Amino acid sequence: MSEGREERPMPASFPPAGNEPLLARARAVAATVCDPEIPVLSIEDLGVLRDVTCSADGSIEVVITPTYSGCPAMNMIALELEIALEKAGFDRVRVTTVLSPAWTTDWMSEEGRRKLKAYGIAPPSEKRAGRGALFGADEVTCPRCGSANTVRLAEFGSTSCKALWRCQDCREPFDYFKCH
Amino acid sequence: MAKTIRVNETPLVLYTLRRADDALILGHRLSEWCGHAPMMEEDMALANMALDLIGQARSLYTYAGEAEGGGRTEDDFAYWRDERGYRNVLLVEQQNGDFARTILRQFLYAHFADLYWRAMMASKDATLAAIAAKSEKEMAYHVRHAGEWVIRLGDGTAESHARIAAALEDLWPYTGELFEMDASEKALVDAGIAVDLSALRERWRANVKAVLDEATLTTPADGWMQKGGRTGIHSEHLGHLLAELQHVQHTIPGAVW
Lengths: 180, 257
Known about the structure:
The complex is a heterodimer of chains A (180) and B (257).
Chain A: H1 20-30, H2 43-46, E1 49-54, E2 60-64, H3 73-87, E3 93-97, H4 110-119, E4 121-122, H5 132-135, E5 150-154, E6 162-167, E7 173-177
Parallel strand pairs in A: 2-3, 4-7
Antiparallel strand pairs in A: 1-2, 5-6, 6-7
Chain B: H1 11-31, H2 40-68, H3 74-79, H4 90-93, H5 99-120, H6 126-154, H7 158-171, H8 183-190, H9 201-214, H10 237-251
Helix pairs in contact in B: 1-2, 2-6, 5-6, 5-7, 5-9
C-alpha cells in the first residue's frame, strides 16, 4: 500500500518525451478491465481506476482504489490489469492500491450509471456531498419499471457495494448500488 | 517451519496492531455466522460486515508492518502471533451466543468505531487518516444495521427482549476497555497521531442510550469494568478462536489459495 500519492511531485521528465502514445495506449487498455462482480461496468466507469503512468523506461504503473476496505474483487482486478496489459505488449506493469482519497459513488460516470440501470441494478441516488449521502432518505427507482414506489429489504446485498430492494408496483426484487 | 513472531512494539506499531486486532477478531467472530444466521438477509449482512472489518484489519496490519520496518506482512501478524501477542479489546473476542448477543456486541463496538474513525480522519499520520476515511463510511452502515435490530429485539416479544437485555447486562462491563489509554497512547495523542478516547466516551454513551431507550432497554450504569486485552491478557475464548483462524497456516506454513 502506498499513500499520499496525490502529493508526490511528478518527475521533471514527466511525461517522458516520446512516451505519450505508449501512455495513451496503456490507459485505454487499463480502462477495458471490468469489475468481476458487475461485469457490465469497467473499472473506469466505477471510479476504481485512479491513474496510469508511464516512466522513462517504458514501465507502466496503474493506480487503483478499493470501493470497500474488504472488497474481494481488488486482487482479481489487479491480476486482470496485469494480464490485459501484458497481452497488449506491456511487460513491465505494476499495480498499486491507494486508499486516499476514499472512493465514493460520486466518481461513477454517467455512462456507468446508465449501464448499471440497463443491467438491472439501480444506480446510486443523485449526487450528494458528505456523510449525508450515506443516509439521506434514499429515493431509489426500480430499474425495471421506473417506479419510485420501492422498499428496502436488506441493508447488505450480494456484494459490499449493494443493498437489496423491492419494487412495490412490479413486485420485482432488485439490487441497489449504495451511495457511499 | 515458521514460528511465533515477537513484534517490536514501538508506540505506533502497538497502536496500529490494537486497532487491527479489534477489527480482525470481530470480523472473524461475525464470519462464524456464515451459513448459520436466522435468515438469508442476515447471513449476507453479517458476512458483509465481517468482510469490512477484515478489510480494515488488512490495511492496518500492512501499515503495522511498514511502521515496524522489518518486512513483516499482514499474514505474519494474523497467523504468527499467539494469544498473548494479540492486543484486541475483550469485547470483540466474546462468543457469538445467540443472534441478540452478536447484534448487541456489534452495536456497542460499531458506535465506538464510528466515532473513533471519524475523529481519526484528522490524524497527522497520513496512512491512519486514509484508513479512517474508508472505515468510517463502512461503520456507518454497521451502526444503522445493529441499531435497527436492537430496537426490533428490545421492543419486540418478551423472549427477544429478555435475550437482548441479558446480552446487554453481560457485555456492558467490556465497554470500559474501549476507552482505555496507556502512556504510549497518550504520547501519540499529544503528537496528533492518536485520538483522545476519553473525549469520545460521553458521546458514545449518549448515542448508545438513544437507541437503547427506543428499544425499551435500560442503559446500565458504569460499574467494575473488564480489561486486559490491550496488554495481551485475554478471556478463555480467544485461544479457541485463534486455533481455528491459524490452523491451516500452522499445519502447512506458507500455504496460499
